[in-house]
Amino acid sequence: MSSTQLTSFLFLFVTSSLLPAVANAQIKSPNAHVDYSVELEPQILFDFIGHDAFGLGVRAGIEVADPAFIPSINNTIAIDVGLGVMDRDTCRGWNNGRWNNGNNNYYYNGWNNCPGTTWIGVPVDLQWNFWFHKNWSAFGEAGLVLEHWSGWEANGFEQDGDFDVDPNFGVGGRYIFNSGTMGLVMRINSMAHSFGFAFYL
User: Fold this and answer.
1) pLDDT tens digits, one per residue of 119-160
2) 102 secondary structure, DSSP code
3) pLDDT tens digits, residue range 182-194?
4) Could you give phi then psi for residue 50, rounded to 5 degrees?
5) What fold characterizes domain 3-200?
6) Rounded-to-integer distance, Cα 186 and Cα 171, Å
7) Where are the domains positioned within the chain?
8) Are 148 and 139 contacting, i.e. CB atoms less than 8 angstroms apart?
9) DSSP string spanning 119-137?
């Protein structure tokens, strides 16, 4: 399955989270959701900034407000912290470029024969959850991500080993199994799209 197909599947999953069964909707019932303190989510990461990129990650969400900003509806706030590692093909669409390995500059022309990138990211987000149904919820998140690059960075000429702090935004949806202890989480995120299998503690 290509990264475009994965992104399309992710988009359909997330949007379906916004359309739960109306008869069972619980958005107007504060606290009518799975009772948990921590959401632990191992992840598959993919399609970073439109390039072919795949990796693994983990996130931990800690609930800090229930109900949250709107006391009359079923919403919560969590602090979400993660760690992700990806390998990325960085040469797509570039005709000329430079790669710096810390000692020497290397120049190339064309699509081939340029080094790839290993990316490590540590996101810290504020996550706003909306619980529409006992099994379905959607969320938006915003925060910062600490990023480390090793190799070629295709969005500028950054040196090997650079650190950056960038804004991070995302939307997602989750499906929780009837037991309330496990679930599936998918997100569209400026750092990396993801699919995860979550545990609720």
Assistant:
1) 899 999 999 999 988 888 999 999 999 988 776 544 444 445
2) S
3) 999 999 998 889 9
4) 80, 5
5) Porin (2.40.160)
6) 9
7) 3-200
8) no
9) EEEEEEEEEEEEE-SSSEE
